[in-house]
Write a structure and sequence with these properties.
two-stranded antiparallel sheet, 4-stranded mixed beta sheet, 9 helices, alpha+beta, Zincin-like
Length: about 350
């Protein structure tokens, strides 16, 4: 192990490649794998949204009496409605992804109340970001400050050429230079590994799936009212065999959409959270690879874990992007150490334990 002296005069041990990763896997391999997973996960999310859209379209077709002139093919008569619903969902997925690609990072920065700063505003912060960007082989991201006493930071951007890092004033004031380097290395690792692109796109798709499920619930409410009125008008005569057949189709479509509207958002959120937790572990390991000093990251995480201030500008749509969950709910009970399938971040104590393992 090589020894090196930091700018603060502390002697650091330069560690070999993080042991948390398999010996035959490089960070370039992980970046390529992340890009492939981005495509596959987005296709999976899009398929989930298209299936929900098609089911809603089919239910609307059944409720509207598509093909009622000839009831010999009630199921076949729903195909136009199914295709229309799937097409609308696919178009919405494309629009949402395009918006996230070009405007997602700006929206996140605006929602969090971040303001861009220059080198003269904080020379040390800029120097740290520039040094780590050189080590990572990426362009220096834009630097933002969030005027908030909470301890947090995040990165955003669709690729290293269009990226930004943001840190709260509270965290900036509490960190030593080595700890600051650990946090910024973590965020730059997210940029280099294309985590921020993946998570922004996934957040957009989850939002669309939740929106579609909510639209279905509203549709059922109003459809039940209108269907009840139409049923009352038809009770006087002419229900016929066709009407009964169409009623069965409508019930089947309703049950399918109901099941999808319940399960699709849950599955989408679980996928999103699972990916987010794994990306945090990888970013921690990547931060050590960039700084060669696990103690800096460990010290920063310990300080962050002891904070009970919530970030005012954060919300559930952006919580997964921060170094720790910034929401009030994340501080209840065991706080950041709670492990759950519905947590955006892995337990803080596990992250620290993995970093400590790199020291020995």
């Amino acid at each position: 192990m090589a020894k090196s002296e930091s700018s603060t005069g502390v002697i650091h041990t330069e560690f070999p490649r993080p042991k948390a990763l398999p010996a035959n896997v490089t960070f370039d391999d992980l970046i390529r794998r992340n890009k492939r997973r981005s495509v596959l996960l987005m296709l999976g999310m899009a398929a989930l949204l298209v299936a929900l859209g098609a089911a809603i379209g089919g239910l609307l077709g059944a409720m509207g009496g598509a093909g009622t002139a000839d009831h010999r093919g009630d199921t076949l008569s729903l195909w136009p409605s199914l295709l229309l619903g799937a097409s609308v969902a696919l178009v919405l997925a494309g629009i949402g992804s395009a918006w996230s690609w070009f405007n997602g990072s700006k929206a996140v920065l605006k929602m969090s109340g971040a303001r861009q700063i220059e080198h003269k505003d904080d020379p040390q912060l800029f120097n740290v970001v520039e040094e780590l960007s050189i080590a990572a082989g990426t362009p220096r991201p834009e630097v933002y400050l969030i005027d908030d006493p909470s301890l947090n930071a995040f990165a955003t951007g669709r690729d290293p050429e269009h990226a930004a890092v943001a840190i709260t004033t509270g965290l900036r004031q509490h960190l030593s230079r080595d700890e600051l380097a650990g946090v910024m290395a973590h965020e730059i690792a997210h940029i280099r590994n294309y985590d921020v692109r993946l998570m922004m796109l996934m957040a957009t798709m989850v939002g669309l799936i939740v929106f579609a499920a909510d639209a279905f619930r509203r549709m059922v409410f109003y459809g039940a009212l209108m269907g009840g009125r139409r049923g009352g008008m038809r009770t006087g005569g002419g229900g016929g065999r066709g009407g009964g057949g169409q009623g069965v189709v409508m019930i089947i479509m309703f049950l399918i959409v109901l099941l999808l509207s319940i399960l699709a958002p849950i599955f989408a959120m679980m996928i999103r959270f699972a990916v987010s937790r794994q990306r945090e572990y990888l970013a921690d390991a990547s931060a050590v690879e960039l700084t060669r000093y696990p103690q800096g990251m460990i010290g920063a995480l310990e300080k962050i874990g002891g904070c009970r201030e919530t970030l005012q500008g954060a919300n559930r749509a952006t919580a997964h992007m921060f170094i720790v969950n910034p929401l009030k709910d994340a501080l209840k009970g065991q706080g950041h150490n709670l492990s759950s399938a519905f947590r955006t971040h892995p337990p803080l104590q596990d992250r620290i334990a993995r970093l400590r393992a790199l020291i020995h």
